[in-house]
Every structure is written in C-alpha cells, then in structure tokens.
Amino acid sequence: MNLASYKTKSLHGEVTCPGDKSVSQRIVIIGSLLNCDMRVSGFLNAQDPLSTVNALNSIGSSISINGNEVILKKREVMFKDPEQVLNLGNSGTGARLLLGLISGLGLRSTITGDSSLSKRPMNRIIEPLNMMGARLSSDKGMLPISTHASKIMNNFEYEMPIASAQVKSCLLLTAMSAKKNIKITEPKITRDHTERMIDFFGGDIAYGNNQNSRLIELNYSELEPKDTFNVPGDFSSASFIIVATIISKDSEVLIKNVGLNESRKGLLEILTLMGADIFIKNQKEISNEIVGDIYVRSSELNGVDVPDDIIPNIIDEIPILSIASCFADGQTVIRNASELRVKESDRLNAISEGLLKLKIKHDILDDGISITGTSKEIRCDEFINSFDDHRIAMSFLISGVRSENCVRVKNCKNIETSFPNFKDIMNSIGMKIDDEN
Ligand code: S3P
Known about the structure:
By secondary structure, this protein is α/β, with parallel strands linked by helices. It has 12 helices and 25 strands. It folds into 2 domains: 2-19 and 232-436, UDP-n-acetylglucosamine1-carboxyvinyl-transferase, Chain, CATH 3.65.10; 21-230, Alpha-beta prism (UDP-n-acetylglucosamine1-carboxyvinyl-transferase, Chain). The site of shikimate-3-phosphate has 11 residues, from helix 5.
C-alpha cells in the first residue's frame, strides 16, 4: 500500500491519539501473570499488541478484545506449552518480553517473527536469560528462538551493556514469572512502563541512586489484582501530530490524553529547545502513568545538538525529529544513536535515503545524522521507500505538509503495527493523505 501526502495550508482541531503500544503490550503480559478478571480501556488495537495477545492466548491466557477494550479472564488452568510456533510478526517488544515471561515460566516454545523481526539482534536477551538459568537456543542469535525447561536463579544481578527497555523488561518479567528477585543496572535511563506497572499492582520495585546509570531492584512479591486499567495515549504517535503542526503555517492543534511519562517525552524537551510553541494542559495520573493534553502551534525552529543522554528517551521519535530538523534554521546533530540501525529497519539509512529524495542536505554518521534545514518548500518527484517501517513511513508522510506538490511513500502497510488510524486522524486536522498507486 502506497500513500501520498499533499501540501496543506494549515492544521487545526482536537484529536485523541491511539493507546500506547508499550503499555498495551505490557498490560496483557502482566495481566496474564495476575490471573484475574480485569477490564483494560484505551488498548492499542493494532498488529503488534494483537500478535502479543495471540501468543499469550496460546500459552493459556484468556484475553479477548473488543475495539479498544480488553477483557482478561481468570484462568482455570495453569500456563501451558504452546501447541504451535508463536509468531510475533513485526513486534520486537512482543518477542523480547514474551521470551522473558516464557523463560520464567519454564515453558517449551518456539518464537518466530516476520522478515524484519527475524533480522533483529536477540543475543541481548539470550545471553542474560541463559546466565539467569533459562535455556534458549537460536539461529545465530536471531529468531526463531526455542525455549526449554529452565531453573531461574534467585537474586540475579545484571549490568546491561546497552540501554534497552526491552531487555530490562524481558529480565524483570522473567524474574516476576519465576517468582525471584533481580537487580538490573541500565547504562542510561530507558522507558520504565514495566516498573511502573509492577508498582501499580503492588509489586516491590526500588531504584538505586547512580549518577548516569540506574539500578532497578525487584524483590518478588505476589501482585494484587485490580478490576480496571487505563492505557494512556501513545506519545510516539502524538509526535507525528506535534511535528506536523509545528512545521505547518498558521496551525494549532490540541492532542488529548497523551502519555507524558518522563522516560518517553524527551522529544518535547528537544522541540522546545529548538523553539517550538508547546503547552501541556490537564496533567494527571492514571494507572501509575502521567497523562495530559498537548497544545501545539506552528513554530519557527532552530537546529540543535541533541544531548547524548536523551537518546534512549527519544529513540522512536528520531525519524520524526529528523523531519522537524529539515525545516529548522541551521544544523541539527544527532549522535550516539546506533541503536537506530537495529530497529524495524536500519533507521539511519532509511532516514538518509528519504532525505536524499527530499533534497535535504545531511550527513549520515556511524551513530547518527546531521541535518541542515531549509526555509523553502520541498520538492519530491520520486517515491520514498519506507523500508516496511511504520515510523519511517509516517515521518515522511508528515513532510508532505511542506511540499510544493506532494510526498509519496512506498509500502505503508506497516503503519498498522502502531497507528492504524494515522491517515484518518491526520486528515481530520487538515492534512491530505491519500492512497497512491
Ligand atoms: C520499547 C522500547 C524501545 C522502543 C520500542 C519499544 C518497549 O526499544 O524502541 O519501540 O516497549 O520497551 P529499546 O529496547 O531499544 O529501549
């Protein structure tokens, strides 16, 4: 499926963006461990969380989905070995977190994914899981991965060599499902939805006080069931609406009920540093996550050097930050972001290929990119390749608002993994995104 995004005059309106993907995945996993009747609202009904739900139901969970509501039912039976291979599709979070859960439960299973997920590095979880007492075998550190009977040790301590919320969450879930304590040190602070959720259900999570790294300590205790859980709106999805509004002329948009977790909203800090006009309203706490409404207006941006420490916090927003940088005065430099090479695509390469087509001056670095903005409208005569990556597809479609004609993007189907109503939401505030042959 190809999409074209046409030049637009201005964007206006009020929107609610879909549920948070990371939180949606975690609530069905932790909800399964809780084994209680629970109603989840605001769930992201998109391919990635659905793959996770299907896999969980194959190991004995009882989860049903009705639009954005999820019903978890108390099971009569224990978790069981799945009868079939568990296919996690495009979902790196689903695969890595489930491998943690399944290892802790000591189930025998095989996990696969689509062609993109099958190229992503899994040694980052296989090694610590095996050190912890799990037994995983893989195809050269990639999917498919099989899990065998395990004996998870108590009080495992692990210093993560890379800052990854998926690795941290995988290990926390292994310890939770095996009923063990664990201590993990992350080199930089990464998203903490798993810790917050464990805490929300009465688990014992504590943090150590290191300067640049963070120690997370889980002392196992039984979690306490709750009847309901609310998933906040996805900040990463909101970031497309934010940047579209900032780079459009005479625009103002209110995005309601967005997750504003400190470990996720770094893009607001960077955009504000660049000169963006953004306000937060109605901030409150829901299900142990901060949510609020984001009010954003057209803004003149300046290029910035993005601080290294914030990279894990904005890792999914770098493609759309790159589009904002195209329309900033001067250069924006992003470094220390080599993790982008092992996401749904090699995102540094995908951003660079797209910028070439937009004729935006940039330099690709080993671990980042530097982009020189333009005050002119862009002209793009060739199709941009999404590399089957949802965030690359959406980012380049947003650049269409500043085109002389339109920006056409190839293979946009993957948008369904995280933001199925992207086209409708963007069009509802004035963008013109249409199917293209
Ligand atoms: C995620 C963590 C991030 C992010 C991914 C979702 C999560 O990856 O890129 O889209 O839900 O834990 P890292 O493992 O690199 O932090």
